[in-house]
């Protein structure tokens, strides 16, 4: 987007006169300025000249020899302009001038000999001096027409820049930097920003002219079939005597921002678009047949637009149609049929706020982007619809010959209303990290058009202006406004402070996982989300689970309360692949009734129900758990007294204690649970609170020398009832005699011929003396005494 400094001065007085300083400040606080262009930069050493004589070049059919009167006398040049004639006032470039050679690269003119004839200077076409916006012409037979100036002999030799009044400075604004600011696609929007930045002050605004509308309705109705996509609409019918001629001042301003003059009605709508940010369109009302419908297109409908291209429309593009079909691609480009022509006597002028999403989709679907659509897709504020409409009417009444407003004002919707935003000045300081005086904050917001209401509390009630309803809705938006206007460059840069020392790490979890892997257990990493059905299937209470507010689905509604469900689900999928499945999972678990903690879950599942008690999954798992815990310095105890949950077998469950503290449970999974997960055999699980476990001090490892003397061992089998506890008995046996080194279970058996509820326990008694080799007699004597306690 281009901004004209001369245009801005219609509304403001610039306090800063250096364009580059203004551009730098705008870049820092508002939007990136790509370039600052001084208008007429190529007009140095260019003057107004007059063609005195004109003759054919003796050696070239398409070239002429011209004598041109200039400020430096008469100059002979060779020229190829097709419209050149004697007495014509032209743009003449002396040697040393910089021009765009045939509209291409910039070159410095030098005296030259062309086909044997000397040429001292150049008679220029508009595009060779970059003034084609003021003099739009078309090529003829491959030649570029020469600029024909309206002047008198008194003007001969005048510097061309002064003669054309090209003294403007243009700022090129990067459109991407104002994507969220549709109010800035205008000179009025940037005028507000410059005032807020302290670079300008408002001029005394002239009294707004009162526009009188007619009392009769427009002869056709405009029906908005999609009111949600067109929330604001203004229109009326005008009668004109002729199109008139666009005044030079308007042509210059349009050329300054990169727009060519087309015709006065079109130029007025383009002028208002650049001034207010409101794209408008004028239709030849006599080409409208029947009522107008503002609707969405059907896929495959066709429309010939102003560029004379037939466009196949997608489904859902905003269009205008009458009894003869489509005649406007709303928000993007008008139709050729309804465009203003030299014969136009009645103009239907309209202004509309459109749904930006539908415009964006239409741009992509048609692969056609225009200046109007670029603004519309950002979301034109509704208040600008009426402002732009009234400004256009003002210019029509002032400039277009015989303009009369023939109808009442058609209007749909309103300008909208702003909801106040609560802002705490202390919050601004916290977010920006700099103390900004409250007066400065208030001044910034008020200069940007916000109104502030203070009450007895420290919180302000800030109401955004109507042109900022889309992008100022929360306190953070206001903080951003204050920050950018105050200047982010004024905020001291402070490096964040952080301790880069490597923290102390507890490697025990990592080592426990590695040890389990060494024992053949596979680590699983399932999702930490589960469902009420899986929790119930696992024998767990779903009422204690934490539910997500926005779950992806019922199957992922709750945070896991235990690692057991994930292990069981995985076992159900894989246990049939092998006789024995070992897996574990370490993760955080969550409950409503207790704090979050780290939990280690271990599962051992076997395919069939083995006859040998030693193949019981519970005993196999117990052996692995004890080995792993002891390896890392823990001294675990397995105690059978436990409160059983629905997931545990009531007769095969125990607690794991370390230093008297309960850190977990060891149990065979209840048959109902294994059946629910369709496990083919039995399964055992251990669930340990790793948070508690890691808070327990490990015992130091003791290294003892290998025994130097052999042991004497005896295996003894005894029948026990399953209700009898063997653990306390074995502990007492170990303390019965100093020569008894170990009493360890080496076999278990249950089944026929034993009675139901009975099992055989085989214990290996190992005897050793630390200072000699025991004789058989000594060992037997001690063994007899020990067996008396094993009765």
CATH hierarchy, class of the largest domain: Alpha Beta
Number of strands: 41
Rounded to the nearest angstrom, the distance between the terminal CA atoms is 102 Å
Mean pLDDT: 90
Across the major sheet, the strand order is 30-33-34-38-37-36-35
Structural class by secondary-structure content: alpha+beta
Radius of gyration: 46 Å
Low-confidence stretches: none
Architecture of the largest domain, according to CATH?
Answer: 3-Layer(bba) Sandwich
Give descriptors for this structure.
27% strand, 6 domains, OB fold (Dihydrolipoamide Acetyltransferase, E2P), alpha+beta, Phenylalanyl-tRNA Synthetase, Chain B, domain 1, Phenylalanyl-tRNA Synthetase, Chain B, domain 3, 791 residues, 7-stranded mixed sheet
Give structural notes.
- The protein is α+β, with helices and mostly antiparallel strands and 791 residues long.
- The protein has six domains: 2-39 and 168-200, Phenylalanyl-tRNA Synthetase, Chain B, domain 1, CATH 3.30.56; 46-164, Beta Barrel (OB fold (Dihydrolipoamide Acetyltransferase, E2P)), CATH 2.40.50; 222-412, Phenylalanyl-trna Synthetase, Chain B, domain 3 (Phenylalanyl-tRNA Synthetase, Chain B, domain 3); 421-490, Phenylalanyl-tRNA Synthetase, Chain B, domain 1; 508-694, 2-Layer Sandwich (BirA Bifunctional Protein, domain 2); 712-789, 2-Layer Sandwich (Alpha-Beta Plaits).
- Helix content is 24%, strand content 27%.
- The protein has 20 helices and 41 strands.
- The protein has a seven-stranded mixed sheet, sandwiched between helices. A five-stranded antiparallel sheet has the order 6-5-4-7-12.
- Strand 19 and strand 20 form a beta hairpin.
- The model has no long low-confidence stretch (mean pLDDT 90).
């Amino acid at each position: 987007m281009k901004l004209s400094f001369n245009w801005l001065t219609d509304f403001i007085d610039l306090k800063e006169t250096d364009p580059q300083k203004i551009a730098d400040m705008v870049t820092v606080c508002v939007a990136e300025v790509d370039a600052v262009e001084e208008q007429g930069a190529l007009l140095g050493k260019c003057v107004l000249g007059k063609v005195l004589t004109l003759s054919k070049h003796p050696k070239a059919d398409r070239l002429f020899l011209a004598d041109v009167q200039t400020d430096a006398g008469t100059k002979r040049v060779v020229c190829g302009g097709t419209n050149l004639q004697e007495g014509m006032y032209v743009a003449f470039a002396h040697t040393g001038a910089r021009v765009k050679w045939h509209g291409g690269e910039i070159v410095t003119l030098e005296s030259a000999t062309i086909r044997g004839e000397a040429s001292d200077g150049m008679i220029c076409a508009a595009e060779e001096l970059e003034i084609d916006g003021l003099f739009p012409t078309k090529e003829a037979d491959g030649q570029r027409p020469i600029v024909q100036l309206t002047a008198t002999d008194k003007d001969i030799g005048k510097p061309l820049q002064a003669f054309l009044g090209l003294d403007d400075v243009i700022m090129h604004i990067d459109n991407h930097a104002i994507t969220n600011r549709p109010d800035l696609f205008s000179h009025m929007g940037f005028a507000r920003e410059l005032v807020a930045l302290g670079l300008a002050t408002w001029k005394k605004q002239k009294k707004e002219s009162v526009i009188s509308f007619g009392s009769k309705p427009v002869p056709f109705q405009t029906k908005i079939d999609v009111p949600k996509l067109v929330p604001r609409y203004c229109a009326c019918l005008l009668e004109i005597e002729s199109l008139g001629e666009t005044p030079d001042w308007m042509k210059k301003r349009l050329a300054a921002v990169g727009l060519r003059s087309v015709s006065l009605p079109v130029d007025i709508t383009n002028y208002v678009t650049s001034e207010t940010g409101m794209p408008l369109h004028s239709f030849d009302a006599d080409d409208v047949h029947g009522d107008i419908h503002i609707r969405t297109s059907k896929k495959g409908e066709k429309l010939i637009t102003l560029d004379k291209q037939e466009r196949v429309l997608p489904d859902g593009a905003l269009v205008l149609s009458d009894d003869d079909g489509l005649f406007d691609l709303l928000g993007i480009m008008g139709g050729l049929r309804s465009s203003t022509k030299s014969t136009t006597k009645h103009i239907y002028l309209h202004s509309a706020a459109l749904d930006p999403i539908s415009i964006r989709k239409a741009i992509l679907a048609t692969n056609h982007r225009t200046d109007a659509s670029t603004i519309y897709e950002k979301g034109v504020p509704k208040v600008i619809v009426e402002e732009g409409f009234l400004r256009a009417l003002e210019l029509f009444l002032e400039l277009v010959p015989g303009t009369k407003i023939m109808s009442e004002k058609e209007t749909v919707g309103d300008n909208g209303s702003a909801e106040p935003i609560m802002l705490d000045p202390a919050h601004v300081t916290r977010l920006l990290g700099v103390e900004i005086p409250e007066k400065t904050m208030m001044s910034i917001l008020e200069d940007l058009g916000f109104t502030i209401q203070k009450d007895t509390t420290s919180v302000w009630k800030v109401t955004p202006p109507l042109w900022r309803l889309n992008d100022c809705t929360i306190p953070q938006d206001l903080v951003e406004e204050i920050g950018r206007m105050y200047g982010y460059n004024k905020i001291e840069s402070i490096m964040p402070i952080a301790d880069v020392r490597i923290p102390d790490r507890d490697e025990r979890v990592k080592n426990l996982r590695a040890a389990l892997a060494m024992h053949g257990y596979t680590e699983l990493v399932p999702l930490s989300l589960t469902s009420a059905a899986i929790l119930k299937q696992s024998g767990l209470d779903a009422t204690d689970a934490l539910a997500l507010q926005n779950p992806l689905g019922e199957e992922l509604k709750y945070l896991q309360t235990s690692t057991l469900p994930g292990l069981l689900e995985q076992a159900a999928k894989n246990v049939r692949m092998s006789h024995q499945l070992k897996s574990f999972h370490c993760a955080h678990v969550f409950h409503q009734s207790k704090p979050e903690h780290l939990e280690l879950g271990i599962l051992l599942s076997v395919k069939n129900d083995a006859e040998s008690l030693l193949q019981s999954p519970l005993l196999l798992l117990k052996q692995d758990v004890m080995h792993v815990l002891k390896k890392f310095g823990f001294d675990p105890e397995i105690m059978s007294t436990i409160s059983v949950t629905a997931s545990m077998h009531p007769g095969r469950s125990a607690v794991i204690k370390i230093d008297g503290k309960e850190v977990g449970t060891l149990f065979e999974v209840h048959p109902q649970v294994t059946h629910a997960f369709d496990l083919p055999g039995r399964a055992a699980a251990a669930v340990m609170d790793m948070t508690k476990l890691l808070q327990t001090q490990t015992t130091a490892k003791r290294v003892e020398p290998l025994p130097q003397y052999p042991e004497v061992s005896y295996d003894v089998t005894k029948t026990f009832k399953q209700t009898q506890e063997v653990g306390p008995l074995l502990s007492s046996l170990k303390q019965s005699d100093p020569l008894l080194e170990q009493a360890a279970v080496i076999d278990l058996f249950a089944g026929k011929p034993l009675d139901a509820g009975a099992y055989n326990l085989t214990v290996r008694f190992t005897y050793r003396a630390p200072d000699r080799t025991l004789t058989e007699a000594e060992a037997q004597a001690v063994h007899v005494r020990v067996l008396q306690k094993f009765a």
